[in-house]
Specification:
The protein has helices at about 1-50, 160-185, 185-190, 195-225; strands spanning about 55, 60-65, 70, 80-85, 90, 95, 100-110, 120-130, 135-140, 140-145, 155, 230, 235-240, 245-250. With about 250 residues, the protein is α+β, with helices and mostly antiparallel strands. The strands form four sheets. Strands 2, 4, 7, 8, 9, 10, 11 and 13 form an eight-stranded antiparallel β-sheet that branches. The model is unreliable at about 5-15, about 20-30 and about 35-45 (pLDDT under 50).
């Protein structure tokens, strides 16, 4: 009986010691986790709280000067580019983005020029602005004023077969008109000595042949001709409009 009591006592003490150790370990782990959270919070929170910003409102127009050459002939989707702000951006007479501030972006889409006189198109996406204090601020904008800007917001060299035919028709009519006027006004007579009564119908007939011939020839050529490229050179300027407001850090 005595041995049984001793064994029971030893077992009870062992269980109590094991439970105490587990509880102590759990408590220590929880304390360490709480301490780590407090350290992380104390390191990050004051940094965020100290940032001062000023807002550039949505709809603000920013003048951009391109610094990277872009060409639909050799630029690819995803190619990066950078530009600079060409004129101070002010809010309440305070300069928030001075002239020369860097704007970075990438080529979002490229369509090469092709036959039937179809010109190339390119879509540019502005990613972020690098502020004067060195912070990168995402920017959401669209190009609103630029050479070759299409109604879709991309840059297009235009063209297309129907446009080429229309231009060729204008050229043919212009040739016919000038030739006819040349004969009627007597300039042909002054050069050749032939009476106007003869120069007028001669020039009319010449224009009637030359005009349609030029029109037909150019229209046939427009089928196999490729359109133009969109070319952006360093120094070219455009305007972009902010689609969302920008909060510019001041420190």
């Amino acid at each position: 009986m005595k041995n049984i009591r001793e064994i029971a006592a030893y077992s009870l003490v062992t269980v109590m010691l094991t439970g105490s150790a587990a509880f102590s370990s759990s408590l220590n782990n929880n304390q360490l986790q709480d301490k780590a959270v407090k350290i992380a919070y104390s390191a990050v929170n004051p940094y965020k709280a100290d940032i001062r910003t000023q807002r550039i409102p949505e709809g603000t127009v920013v003048k951009i000067r391109m610094e990277t050459p872009i060409n639909t002939n050799n630029s690819l989707k995803g190619d990066p580019f950078f530009a600079t702000i060409g004129e101070d951006v002010k809010v309440n007479d305070k300069v928030l983005l001075p002239s020369g501030t860097i704007v970075r972006g990438s080529v979002a889409e490229v369509k090469k020029r092709s036959f039937l006189s179809r010109g190339g198109t390119i879509t540019l996406y502005f990613d972020h602005i690098v502020t004067p204090v060195g912070r990168q601020v995402p920017v959401f904008s669209r190009i609103t004023n630029c050479t070759n800007l299409s109604s879709k917001g991309d840059l297009s060299a235009g063209g297309g077969y129907l446009n080429a035919v229309a231009n060729n028709l204008d050229t043919g009519v212009d040739i016919f008109t000038k030739t006819t006027v040349y004969g009627v006004k007597g300039k042909f007579k002054q050069d050749t000595g032939i009476p106007v009564v003869l120069t007028a119908p001669i020039c009319f007939a010449g224009g009637l042949i030359a005009g349609p011939t030029v029109f037909l020839g150019k229209s046939v050529y427009a089928i196999v001709k490729k359109g133009n490229n969109v070319i952006i050179n360093p120094g070219d300027r455009m305007e972009v409009t902010l689609l969302q407001s920008l909060d510019i850090p001041q420190n």
